[in-house]
Amino acid sequence: MSSVKSCKYFQQTYLNSGEMQTEENKVSLDVNKKRMLKTPAQIMALENFYKENRFPLDEMKAQLAVQIGLTEKQISSWFCHRRLKDKRRDESYANGRQDHSSGVIQDHGSGLRQDSCGSIKQGDYRHIDLREVESRRIYGQEPLAADLTYEHRSHQNPYDAHMEDTSSESSSSLHDQLFSESRDPYDMQVSDKLTENGALMQINPGSSKSVGYKPSGYLKVKGQIENPAITAVKKQLGRHYQEDGPVLGIEFDALPPGAFEFLRSNPVNAASIYVGDPQQPHSPDIYGVIKQPNLNIINEVHNSKMSSQDSCMEGTKFNTVHGSERQERKSHHQLKYKSSVLCSNPFPGQNSLFDSNKGSSEKTAVSDCKRSGMSSKLSVERMGSDSLSNHPGSYGGKIANEQEKSWLHDNDNHTYKAPKNENLSRTSNLIHRCSEFIGPERGPSARMAKVEKPGGEWKLKKGFPVRVKTDPTNELRVAKRVNVEFPLQDFVANASHARLPLLTNPTKGSSMDVPSSFSEDETAETSSSSG
DNA sequence: TTGTGTTTTATTGCCTCC
DNA sequence: GGAGGCAATAAAACACAA
After folding, report:
1. In 3-state terms, chain A is what percent helix, strand and coil (to 5)?
2. What is the pLDDT of residues A362-419, one digit of tens each?
3. Which residue of A55, A105, A328, A431 sits 20 to 30 Å from the alpha carbon of A130, by its own alpha carbon?
4. CATH class of A45-87
5. Domain Homeobox spans what residues (predicted)?
């Protein structure tokens, strides 16, 4: 079976690379036995994607693979290992570090039982689900500067540290490469940009590693016995939370009026009224970015900000909709159905953002996840022929567009080679769209859903908050509504951040330029594909 | 520079579900 | 049997101390 699967993978690999196996490829196959590190951008994209969807659909994998220049096999493997990594860490913390699991860990239990964190059972996805719920609420969102400050504190809690590691470790290492090892002035710019955005500042080796956890202000008072809900609120407040600000009592003080709504309704202003990070009062780099005569950049930055705000503040809501792996475990068919439905109605009301981002070159890349995101099977089952007909590159087929290939590849010497910003932009959009259409995450397998979804309903076991879904369409509506209200999600923003450096590269040509010479990348992909 | 430990990637086998 | 996932394993890449 495995050999069969391997064969399948190989076939898929070659198909994805748009080539059948040739003598040359056989050579590359041998070469590819040598494992190849994924580029920082690839890792970032994967991580961001992983934050939102630990079990991506095949279509998503395919799209992501195309977009980041990997094979589906690599994508699948990466996700598999990534989940394993999470799981092992969970086990590690569950087995040896429970003594640290107090305080913030309770935050994970906002509305949940604390013992849900302490009784982590190996292999029990439900526990991981809870973490993921919190992970998405707390870490899965764009780590704003203020959030970062808080998150650094959270390191006192190994569990939170784990959570952060889970969500950003690779990114951290990625950015260590990007920043600490940067030799290119552009990389420095990258660092600046990313730092100013706050989202990645934490992973700046100089800042993150030097920041130790020192409870202060509110945390100092409340210590680790604070109401987990308060912690959750603080996190949701994100940058707006101020240590020296009004103390949030165990019983909630009223949130600043319109604290959320304003940003939601004025995403652009949200960036300009950035007040949460005293160290970066004005984030000059943001201005630097905005100065860039690329509308994409502006949108990206704003989107990032907006998404950060929204995601931070609405993380709970998101989780309610799709943050839990409970939903991931929903039946494959159901989820695919959702995917198709969501695809059919891609984020109304927020298209403008992407429309403005979309260049003429943004075509197959996005290739509209909403379309290509559907497997051919699903398409046949659920979609009209138009969806398929418009699908530029069928899933599993030849890479839709060579231009889309390998734009995230590094060159050989690991110097971060900024791809064309447009490419990144497209990827961001792609990912975003994919996430949009995904809606609730797909479960790891139908068998889990079978347990949790008896009789068309699904509920949690073991006393976790039970959410009975009686009408799948309702959830779809909710998902769509939420997606509309909070269109950008963290991984998109991160992708945007990842893009920022590229935008500063004056030598890369216009954003509309599509990499014309992917020989290097294509070679890399070809070689990796045959692995 | 080298040795060692860790992390990441790739492969393979097995399991479960459809 | 196909498909997808988890787990184990090997090996390369990386980090770091001596």
Report:
1. 65, 0, 35
2. 333 333 333 333 333 333 333 333 333 333 333 333 333 333 333 444 333 333 333 3
3. A431
4. mainly alpha
5. 29-89
In angstroms, rounded to a whole number, what is the distance separating the alpha carbons of residues A402 and A386?
23
Check if residue A3 sits with its Cβ under 7 angstroms from strand B: yes
- At residue A93, the pLDDT reads 65
- Here the tokens at position A245 are 């600000």
Angle among Cα A208, A38, A498 to the nearest 5 degrees reads 50
pTM of the predicted model as reported, rounded to 2 decimal places:
0.38
Determine the residue type at A76.
Answer: S
Hey, what are A348's tokens? 């109304």
How does pLDDT run across A419-435, given as a tens digit for each residue?
A: 333 333 333 444 444 33
Q: Where does the pLDDT of residue A91 fall: very low under 50, low under 70, confident under 90, or very high at 90 and above?
A: low
Would you call A319 helix, strand, or coil by DSSP?
A: helix
> Hey, what amino acid is at A233?
V
Residue pair A338/A345 in contact (Cβ under 8 Å)? The answer is no
Q: Where do the domains of chain A lie? A: 45-87
Dihedral Cα A303, A307, A310, A311, nearest 10 deg: 180
CA distance A280 to A120: 39
A442 beta carbon to strand C: under 7 Å:
yes
**Residue A46 pLDDT exceeds 80:** yes
* 76-95 on A, CB < 7 Å from strand B: 77-78, 80-81, 85
pLDDT tens per residue, range A149-182: 333 333 333 333 333 333 333 333 333 333 333 3
A221 CA to C17 C1' distance (Å): 40
Strand C and A4 CB separated by under 7 Å = yes
* Residue A487: both structure tokens together: 């269109």
Question: Torsion over CA of A267, A269, A270 and A274, rounded to 10 degrees?
Answer: 160
